[in-house]
Structures are given as structure tokens and as C-alpha cells.
């Protein structure tokens, strides 16, 4: 296919600004799907995504569009995830495009992820078409929104397309703009093949689908291809595109987006960011690849029933196959036995993984409180990273304890600036900048320790701003801080899985909160249970769960006996779902309570 | 062979808000059908011939409200029972009675039928508590009621309820003192429980009923043990207090693990280690019996070890606890062998005590008996 008639683009937007709906409309208007097949959120084919209304894993669709110039164009829509956790996937999708539709809600306007995504597109040198969505809303502020697009993002608002994806209004204009304004890809069909691997997917029948964007050359069925970084050669069994259903084709030429099947069965044999070339006529140089995604959040995951360990391992392996940004490694805890330390891009990513593990396998999990990665420099000069509070060495040997710092952008109304500044100050934030987007809205930039934002910053922001504030962050490096490991003792015994890393200035407070929280989560026992927080050997907080004082059923006659026995047995059963430490049963929720920063 | 029998009489004027027993309120019209069906159900014990009669040590009529039946109906009930059963020398025959039903005529009829023990649903001497509990008598009725009963039947037990929403320790102590002043032969003291499906359950959920704090309930239970003891009563079970020789032999049969028969809707028996429970609905039970079907809807055969553990749960309710030899004889298990470390743990917590005779709850253990029993199940 002549690259002149190809356009490769993504849609980027803040969450809920209507990205999936617009994508569906583009499919519908180009006949890729019929009205009958039109269903909401078509591109989000993972259940988890449907439930949460967000796109996690990038997908791609080839559309045929007949333009008013009489020519038929191939428009490759490369979907991107919309959540801050999945920044990495956004950039790798954008690398396969020449342009992007920047979708902005006609009422909500530019939000934090609009900014983050727009910058990502600008960085990749993409042509950006602003699209104002939801123009059918009863109340819009289209002019203000366009002004924000200009002042915040530096984009020309005059060419903005105004649509209602929900109603299908002006979708044609959108398609026309894609053809007219996004540059056609370049590249000679007869040059040595260079195709960027931007995604892969495992299918139990076909093996691994390698998603590629051809930069130069042509690939056909039967060719022998080579992964330039991986160094392995494979025969092409099938090539094709998704439109949106899988459609085989004879060849893919420069600028085209599609998939290659080679009979590879293991997902880890295909590296995202690698370059595909011909084994017989290799390109001289590979395309610039991607950086490995950085896992910033870690937690322990343990089967409640130790016998489920193998089952859990199998499931994690399967999951890691389809999600290169998830990592896992076996670990042992005195308290929880055998389990895994898992790495995630962020909290949402973690929740999604946990949800998948529990729903796809009948494994009850105990998850420990997530933590970020820390960097330790010992007096000896050794520098290493730790992703588990238990690995913190003795305070005596630490020269410097460093934590990851993120640059955080908030977009909020003027009235909320005060409370958010207070929140950031409470969390050791360093103020950087305020930029007004218009008379009433501002972008606030802070540098905050990642540990202070990953757990609940998003929720706090939403509650402080009544849901209107948005945020985005990016990790910019490590910085030394006065950090200490806080241990938790339950009935005199240290529970390693409850240990956390806290800032010294905040330790007493966190210790008190945590003890209180645990007091709530751990139910009464037959005996008193002291809960203590300690730093080094020093106790900084203490709570006591009192024993049952009265717990006796008054009546037990002939007809009550069975029921009574079963009731008591059930109480005992319930405890089996918990982990016991010595004689104390700690429910799963308690391990996560470490996170909570609520004062109650 | 069983030597105890229970009969459930499922009629009440009104279902009190806390009650989850099998009964129908305001359906006295079903009494005739009930008596016919009961007669039918009794056929499983023995055909109604004088020679085939089974000897009983204890017979207990509970409810519901047995005294809801009128005179002729009561006569029919006893007739049905005594065509299958005969009473051993000194047998105990108990009837549960609602204080407002007591008349000289009723008492006479009961006594004539052989009833020698009456358990009165007094519940409280606090008028406010009685209102909360939806009872239809006043505290001031009780002395006269008791006097009426005692003209023919001297063995009278009073049921009392504590931890009623709104009730404090003082009110409960006053109730205990009022009850003791009437010199009954037996007291049953029950902490109010909220059962799923009752009006109280939903009212508590809605915040309309507020239970006393745990410490206060504990103090009430302590008073329930101490006040009767000071008045010469002997606590022989978690909720039961008797003057010497006036323990309820029928209830003791449950806690000792003896066999017993049971009739009427929702009743459960225990025969040769098998427990069978009747249909829990009054109409369901009626229909099954009338159709000639078995009234049993559940059968429970526990494995020997589970039976033994259940017996621990029952025995521990008694003041004498689990008696080593008796337990081994009944279950085939040595108590220590069965309970291993759990016993030591509960002992170290101070909830049970052990000696040559057996294993018992300590006073502290009584307060938290459910947790101790659960540990042994």
C-alpha cells in the first residue's frame, strides 16, 4: 500500500473524556462495524477494563475511509491507556503514530492527564488535532476550553474539531482532519525492513501476536524475520491487521500497522520496542526502542492457604506473559510463609492485577501494604535498591536512605489551591510553580515523595476538590530523606509483613494511626492483644484490643444444640481464613490498613 | 431407650419481638389439627396400647405457650401423651406457662394430669422492660400468679431476661431481688439475644434498640450468678439456678447427652446418637404429618469424634463440667486425649480448670463460654 494513503494516529484524553466512545464512532462511520455491532467500549476487551471504564492494554484497529478527495485511506487507530499508571504504554503507542487526536471534554476542559498525554505526543513530534467532545452537553464552556488548549498546551485552537461522540455529531470532520492534517508516513517499500514492535498479545490457539509498525521495507507471509535485539530468526506464518476482527493480508508495507504470527509460543521471546527486520537482508541499525517500564510500587502477595502457592505461581506467570510491566519474585515472610513480591506501575495497576488473580483463580490472597522502591547507600559505599521494608539494613550501616521523588501536576479550580497546598505541605511536598489556565483554573506543580502520593493522593485530591481536581505525576529521581523502618508488634511478636518505611518526622503519627487501625481490623480474642509500633527498639505507639468480657449464649436446649454447635464451628471456620501469629488471627484487611492515612 | 420427652406447643397470643421460636400467633384455630397430628406423630414411639407404654423420667411441654390451649385441648394433649408414655416413680413433668394464662382452673387441670413443675415466663419485674419485651403481664401480677400455682404445684421456676434494651444493672438487680423474694424453687436467667429474622434484629439494625455495653452485660451476668447464690440457690448450669434438689432434670438430660424424644413443629430429638429435627414451620409440620409423612426434615449423624466434641460443648454448660469417666463411657474418648493442647491453652487463659473428676469452666470461663466451647469444637 502506498504510504500516501496511510494515517497512523492515537486518541489521547483525560479519563472519562470520551475516548472509547469516539473510537467506536470512528469504527462505525468507516464501516468497520455495523450499527448492530456497535456496542459501547468496543475497544476495551478486558473485563477489568469494562468494569472500570478505562483502557489498560493498547489495541489497534485498521479503518478504511473514503475521503472527499475520492481516495480510500487506511487509518490505523492505535489505542492508548488513559490512566497515569500506564504512562509507559501511552508513549509506546504514540511512537507508532504520526498524529494524535487530543480529546477534551467541552465542560471539564484541560485536565492533568490531558496535559501529560499532550506533552507525550509533543515529545514524539506528533501532529496534534484538538478535539472538543461532548458539545451536546446542556452546559459547555467550549471557548474557555479552547483557550486552555492554547495557553496550557500551546496548540492552535482554531483547527479544533467539535464533536459529540455520544451522539455521533461531526465525526466526519474528525476523519477528514485525520487525513488532511496528520502527515502520511514516510519510508521506501524496497528498503531493508524495519518494523517497530509496539505491543504483543498471547493467544492460546495462535501463539504470540507481535504488533508492529513498519517504518521501512515490506514484510510478507513466508519471510524469515529477525528480532534485531532478541537476535532470533522466525518464519512468518501469517500477517494481518485488526479491522477490528483479525484479517489476514498478503503483505505490510511502510507506514502500515499490523500483526505478525511466527509460531512463537512464549510472550517473553518478543520484546516490546525491538525492531523486526529480514534475516536475509537485515537493516543496518535498529529503531530506537523503549525503556523498560519502571515498577514503582511493590507489595507482597501470599496465598492464605499455603498449599495454593504453586497455583498462584502459575497464575502470576500467565499474567506476566500478557503484562510486561508486572513483575513477581518468590519471597518468604516469617508471618505469611511463602509468597511473592510483585512490582507494579502504580496502585491502579496493582488493584487490577490482584483482581485478576482472585477472579481467575480460586486463590484467596493476603496482600501486604504496597511500598515504593528505596535506594540505600551504605557507609561502605554500597548502593542498592530495596523494594521490601524487611530489607532495610540496620540504621547504623546506612549512609543515606533515598526515596523516589515525583513531579506532580494538579489541575484545579482556584478555590482548591489552598487545601491542596496544605495537603502537599503535610506530605513533605516542595512547591514548584503555579500557572493559571484561565481566570478560575490553575495548574499547580509540586515535587512530592512518591510514597506520599501513590497510596491515596488521588482520592484525597478528589475529596478536597469535590471530584473536579485532576493530577498526573512522573518520577524524576531519588532524593535522600530521613527515613526509618517502623515495625509492628502484635502481642509481643514482630509481624514482618506489617513493617513499613516512614519519614521520621511523621513516624509517631503514623505509628499511632496504624495501631488504631489495626485495633479496628483485628477482632476480639479470648485474651488481650497489645499492638505496638516500634522504631529500632523504641516503642512509639500502643493500642490494646481488649479480650471478650462476655460471650456466652444463655439458652441451649434440645432443639438448639445442632444450631449452636454449627454456629460456634462457623466462627472457628471464619478464623481459618485469617493468618495466625502465635495465637492472634489477623484478617487480610489488616495488612492493607498500613496504608490508610485517615485520622479516624 | 429414651427416658425424656419434649413436646412443642406452637401457639401464642402474640409473637414477642425477640422470639424466633417455632410458633403461630393468633392461629388458635389450628389447635385441633395440631392435636390430631401430634397424636399421629406419637405413634412412632409406641402404639397406643397400655402394655406398650414407654417409661419416662421427665416430660416437658414447651412452646410457644402450652397454656394457650384451653382445658379440653390440654386434656387431649395429655391423653395422647399418656397413651404412649407412663411416668416413672418421682418423674418430673414440666409445663411452660405465661403468667397471664394462670387461673385456678388451669392449674388444677395441669396438676390433675400429673404436672408437678411449672416454668413461668416472668421475664422481668421492671415494667419498662416488660413493655420493651412486648409481654402482656405486669410485675405486680406475679405474686398472685405464683400463689395460684402453688396451691397445687409447689415446684415453680421463673424465667428472667437481662440485657434488655434500656435496662441497667440496677433494674436487673431489682428484678433478681423481686424474683428471689417470691422464693421460687428455680430461676433461669437469660441474656437477651438478637436473632436473625426477629423484629428486634431489624430494630437494632435501624438503631431503635440499643444493647447495653459489654461491661454492663457482664455485670448483669455476674449479678445473675451472685444474687441467687446469696439466697441459697445453686447454679448448676450457665443460666440455671436451683434450690437443692430442684434442678430441672429434663434440661439436665440435654446437657448430659442423654437420649430424648421430641414432638411438635421444630422439635429435635436425640436417639442412639442420631439427631432428627422436625419441620420448623407449624403448617409444614402439620401437612407432613397429616399426609402420613415423617415429620423429620433433618437427620444428623455425627462422626464419633464430632459427637464427643459436641458433648464437651453441652457438658461444659453444667457446673460439674465434663466428668472424666462418664465422658469416656459415653463417647469412647478420654477427654485429655481428645482435646490435647486446646485444653491446656484454655486452662492457661484461666477459663477452665481440671482435676481428677474432670474439666470445668471457671467463673471467668462462664463469662466467655462461647469462645471456650468453640475452641473445643
UniProtKB/TrEMBL annotation, chain A:
<keyword id="KW-1003">Cell membrane</keyword>
<dbReference type="InterPro" id="IPR000795">
    <property type="entry name" value="T_Tr_GTP-bd_dom"/>
</dbReference>
<dbReference type="InterPro" id="IPR013842">
    <property type="entry name" value="LepA_CTD"/>
</dbReference>
<dbReference type="InterPro" id="IPR035647">
    <property type="entry name" value="EFG_III/V"/>
</dbReference>
<feature type="binding site">
    <location>
        <begin position="133"/>
        <end position="136"/>
    </location>
    <ligand>
        <name>GTP</name>
    </ligand>
</feature>
<keyword id="KW-0342">GTP-binding</keyword>
<dbReference type="InterPro" id="IPR005225">
    <property type="entry name" value="Small_GTP-bd"/>
</dbReference>
<dbReference type="Pfam" id="PF00679">
    <property type="entry name" value="EFG_C"/>
</dbReference>
<keyword id="KW-0251">Elongation factor</keyword>
<comment type="similarity">
    <text>Belongs to the TRAFAC class translation factor GTPase superfamily. Classic translation factor GTPase family. LepA subfamily.</text>
</comment>
<dbReference type="InterPro" id="IPR004161">
    <property type="entry name" value="EFTu-like_2"/>
</dbReference>
<dbReference type="Pfam" id="PF06421">
    <property type="entry name" value="LepA_C"/>
</dbReference>
<comment type="function">
    <text>Required for accurate and efficient protein synthesis under certain stress conditions. May act as a fidelity factor of the translation reaction, by catalyzing a one-codon backward translocation of tRNAs on improperly translocated ribosomes. Back-translocation proceeds from a post-translocation (POST) complex to a pre-translocation (PRE) complex, thus giving elongation factor G a second chance to translocate the tRNAs correctly. Binds to ribosomes in a GTP-dependent manner.</text>
</comment>
<dbReference type="Pfam" id="PF03144">
    <property type="entry name" value="GTP_EFTU_D2"/>
</dbReference>
<dbReference type="InterPro" id="IPR035654">
    <property type="entry name" value="LepA_IV"/>
</dbReference>
<dbReference type="InterPro" id="IPR000640">
    <property type="entry name" value="EFG_V-like"/>
</dbReference>
<dbReference type="GO" id="GO:0016787">
    <property type="term" value="F:hydrolase activity"/>
</dbReference>
<protein>
    <recommendedName>
        <fullName>Elongation factor 4</fullName>
        <ecNumber>3.6.5.n1</ecNumber>
    </recommendedName>
</protein>
<feature type="binding site">
    <location>
        <begin position="16"/>
        <end position="21"/>
    </location>
    <ligand>
        <name>GTP</name>
    </ligand>
</feature>
<dbReference type="GO" id="GO:0003746">
    <property type="term" value="F:translation elongation factor activity"/>
</dbReference>
<keyword id="KW-0547">Nucleotide-binding</keyword>
<dbReference type="InterPro" id="IPR006297">
    <property type="entry name" value="EF-4"/>
</dbReference>
TrEMBL record, chain B:
<dbReference type="Pfam" id="PF04055">
    <property type="entry name" value="Radical_SAM"/>
</dbReference>
<keyword id="KW-0963">Cytoplasm</keyword>
<keyword id="KW-0408">Iron</keyword>
<keyword id="KW-0949">S-adenosyl-L-methionine</keyword>
<dbReference type="InterPro" id="IPR034505">
    <property type="entry name" value="Coproporphyrinogen-III_oxidase"/>
</dbReference>
<dbReference type="InterPro" id="IPR023404">
    <property type="entry name" value="rSAM_horseshoe"/>
</dbReference>
<protein>
    <recommendedName>
        <fullName>Heme chaperone HemW</fullName>
    </recommendedName>
</protein>
<comment type="similarity">
    <text>Belongs to the anaerobic coproporphyrinogen-III oxidase family. HemW subfamily.</text>
</comment>
<dbReference type="InterPro" id="IPR006638">
    <property type="entry name" value="Elp3/MiaA/NifB-like_rSAM"/>
</dbReference>
<keyword id="KW-0143">Chaperone</keyword>
<comment type="function">
    <text>Probably acts as a heme chaperone, transferring heme to an unknown acceptor. Binds one molecule of heme per monomer, possibly covalently. Binds 1 [4Fe-4S] cluster. The cluster is coordinated with 3 cysteines and an exchangeable S-adenosyl-L-methionine.</text>
</comment>
<feature type="domain" description="Radical SAM core">
    <location>
        <begin position="1"/>
        <end position="234"/>
    </location>
</feature>
<keyword id="KW-0560">Oxidoreductase</keyword>
<dbReference type="InterPro" id="IPR004559">
    <property type="entry name" value="HemW-like"/>
</dbReference>
<dbReference type="InterPro" id="IPR058240">
    <property type="entry name" value="rSAM_sf"/>
</dbReference>
<keyword id="KW-0004">4Fe-4S</keyword>
<keyword id="KW-0349">Heme</keyword>
<keyword id="KW-0479">Metal-binding</keyword>
<dbReference type="InterPro" id="IPR007197">
    <property type="entry name" value="rSAM"/>
</dbReference>
<keyword id="KW-0411">Iron-sulfur</keyword>
<dbReference type="InterPro" id="IPR010723">
    <property type="entry name" value="HemN_C"/>
</dbReference>
<dbReference type="Pfam" id="PF06969">
    <property type="entry name" value="HemN_C"/>
</dbReference>
